[in-house]
Amino acid sequence: MSSVKLSRYLFSQCLSPKRTMVSVRVAALLLVFALLLGVQMKMMSIVDNHATTFPAPHPHFKTVSVKRRAKSSAGRLTHRAHTNHKLHKTKSLQLQSGVDHALTNPHLMSHTNPDQIIQHYQQLASSIADKWNLTTPNAIDLLVQQFHKVNDYDSQNDFIHFHHLYKSGGTSISNLMLKSMKDILPGSHESGDFNHEEALADINRHLEEGIDRNDLPYKASYAHTGLRPVYGPLRTKTGIFFLEQIPHKRLRVITMLRDIVDFRASNHAMIMCGLNYEASRWNNERQDQGLPRVCSPKDGLNISALVDRKIHDLLVRCKEEDAILANGGTPVKKLYPTQRQQCRMEEQGIDTLVHCRSGDHLLASPEYDKHYRSMFKALMGRFHRGQEFTNSTAYGRMAYGFERAEKSRGYSVENVEEYTLQDLGGLDLTISGDGDGVGPPEPDFIWFGITERMKESTVLFYFQFKLTPLPRTPKARIQECRPISWWTEENKKIVIEREPADYAVWRAANAIMDVRMEKMRMEIQSLLDAGATKESLYYVDWDQLEDIGFELKNQQLTSITN
Questions:
Q1: Residue 400 and residue 377: Cα distance in Å, rounded?
Q2: Which superkingdom (predicted)?
């Protein structure tokens, strides 16, 4: 008996007067899914290499025991009775589960012609590839695969590590994780490196209290510390730690990236030169005098004068410390040796902060080549398959100093685009620090955000992890005086020309996000068409969607910006 005939039979049985209204609804849904499964079978024969399969579990992934699942399910059922909100969550997850498992893509629920579906995906992918100037020959195919990619996140068995580069908006996302995802592993720091000792102490505390290692409550961690590579001769300390301490978990990663010029301008001003403090101090003094605050050189902000003041303050501190030491005293806060050396060089007439005076000065300085080349290598651990993974990408801050991607064997812009679409896009589970297709697969990217697209990033975050949106959504921690406003258009042009690999990663990442936003919109609409309500889709941030330019009216989610 075909699936369609079987569903019709079940539907007719449920229409019996002896059946309940609930049975009628269930049978109706069965009929819908059976019809769509027939379409799906036809589509699979057409899609060929466009369709993706369910990702295979990592080698260190173990399923939870039946006994444990039964126990946790019973606990959830008991707790569920206390709140209607929990019921909304349960119904919504059941709807989503039915869609995910019955169809490769939920958009099929509103389109019955597989040829039209494939053509629609290809047209969207082609338009997005053109928008972001992608040049790799298989860009469209890889973007189409994003439409077919299934969300297989499992909150019970997956462990998420958020590696965020300095000045990429990671502090905001870390705070969001703490408040919405909860069960964060101690040792996580929203603006610092991962503390392995702190994490181990909390793990041991739970174990000493009699909690089984497989029942440790942790779901995620965050830090400036990277996780990859977990395997191979250069695996990271954090990767080794997680494999040893939570071996039953499937490790997965998330990250943030930023416009490549903004990224450098922010690191330059705040990390390398500390000019954000100087600009704020200068504006506070202006405000005390009744003058308006200004943040742009064209409005009167003199960056070079701020640098002079910073150097003057350091020289004063050096002289004060010299006087204290000469009298046999001990300074309250002793200067670092590098600061003492800086004072000596300044006294000799050497401008130690010449690279801080403007974007022009940085770009002409050896400090640029030392710190700001190929900064996105820390995102995935490498730019393309020709590069080797190294554990130098595990830590950020001033120690970027990576091998220039453009000088690596096998480099091309097309190869970087392709690798980004595959790896950052979460499509390839053969990538391994112990040899692609040979060693165990590295933790895959299950989500990433883009600083300039923070609203879209957070909407996708809630949707991906099925989390209730916070009342106040995080915003990129933008300084009052944005460092990018101190850079000229020529500065920006030079960075883009000088960093083709970073620029390729950024363009490919934006293309992936465009696809994911459209895919999310289609999935939400499919769920609404299947009977879901705005209230039952608790993990959709409707307010943010409206801010982005979408409107829900008469159960139809449409763009109001077109």
A1: 9
A2: Eukaryota
